[in-house]
Design brief:
The protein is α+β, with helices and mostly antiparallel strands. It has a domain of 116 residues: 2-Layer Sandwich (Alpha-Beta Plaits), CATH 3.30.70.3270. The structure holds iron/sulfur cluster (2 copies). The site of one iron/sulfur cluster has 14 residues, from helix 4.
């Protein structure tokens, strides 16, 4: 029968020699290969103690940004959701009430803001679409989870810590972003 490829190999069925029957040379050869790997540079890293550096253009989980006074920047305009090709973003807008000026930068804010990480393709279009510098993609990734619901990140999960009331947490979160944000 004609072969589809030329990769076919005839299996040799000649009887084993005395040394082959001893198996010792084959074991020694195998051990030699194993030993040679002891002296090679390890391609594995001890995660989670050691972490591989991400590429400068890596795009991970979103961060909802605040301004320098700690107010939420998002004005719930919906442009990020509109730009999202995966329809991963949902939000609900609310009106800022008198006395809430220290919480929200604009008259409108996102009362609910969710990103479905199972849908997201981390393209970064939401970040590009945002006119308020309110959403950024960080250099962290969505953690494994047993339930689908766990991949729907809510506003509380996405919002960066307040730079005024939680300066240390803010600095850590900003560091995890891997680049400058406004
Ligand atoms: S990164 Fe892309 S797919 Fe993910 S939420 Fe933003 S626009 Fe949608
Ligand atoms: S994150 Fe930006 S684009 Fe999306 S709703 Fe908020 S202000 Fe608009």
């Amino acid at each position: 029968m004609e072969a589809l490829t030329n990769r076919k190999k005839q299996v040799e069925r000649k009887p084993m020699t005395f040394w082959e029957k001893m198996y010792l040379p084959a074991i020694a050869k195998g051990m030699g290969i194993t030993m040679s790997h002891f002296f090679k540079k390890k391609p594995t890293i001890n995660y989670p103690e050691e972490k591989r550096p991400f590429s400068a253009v890596f795009r991970g989980v979103h961060i909802l940004n605040r301004d320098e006074e700690g107010r939420e920047r998002c004005t719930a305009c919906g442009l990020c959701a509109l730009a999202c090709p995966a329809e991963a973003i949902t939000m609900e807008a609310a009106e800022r009430q008198p006395g809430e000026e220290h919480l929200y930068r604009e008259e409108k804010y996102a009362a609910k803001y969710e990103v479905n990480m199972l849908r997201c393709i981390f393209c970064g279009l939401c970040e590009e679409a945002c006119p308020k510098d309110a959403v950024y993609l960080s250099q962290t990734f969505a953690k494994a989870n047993y339930a689908r619901q766990g991949f729907i990140y809510k506003k509380e999960d996405l919002l960066i810590p307040n730079p005024v009331t939680q300066p240390e947490e803010y600095a850590r979160a900003k560091g995890a972003l891997g680049r400058d944000i406004k």
